[in-house]
Structure prediction request, 197 residues.
Amino acid sequence: MITQELIDYVKTQLSSGVAREKITSDLLGQGGWTMEQINEAFASATPVSGGPNNNLNLGVRDNKYWSKWIPVTNKIFMLLSLLVMFVVHPFIIVTDALGIGTETALFFYGIMFIPLVIFGIFYRYENNKLSNQFGSTRSGTDLWLLILIVIRNIVFGLNFVPFIQIIGAGALVLGIIPYLLIYYFLVRSRNKSVVAV
Prediction:
């Protein structure tokens, strides 16, 4: 059984912009409430939206990290990568602007397809799946994921710049295992930090 005091507390916290998981952890740790009571209080404290799916409005505004910053960052880096890959490099190959010979330029051009494919996989995963999954919830790991994604995008970007791509390839080869481990555990932590209704 929940009390009006609990419902009012949840409403007040949500209207102040406090994350749902913070409210839940406070109520579980200090308030002595059960998860069932807390979920019931959230359901009572938040109105039913009039949208086509009639979903509950959980009191969480759009998460700017996943609804804006991460997708925009990925789009900018992808567009720059494609521009360099399909405009700048063909020009370099055709004109031999760097004076390295066509065969060497084609070799470096061919190598660039590997990071482009890997970047495309991350791009699709983050801009489609994770943005939809995390776009309406918040977590303390969001900022760390944004920082990690920006660093990764810079390393991928280095793989598309002539001659500097050797540094980018080295960073990619040496850093891929630690990066994937950190990325995996941050995404996993992010999944666990969202309280299920």
Q: What stands out?
A: Residues 4-45 form one domain. The chain has two domains: 4-45, 64-193. The two ends are 17 Å apart (CA to CA). The first helix runs from residue 4 to 15.
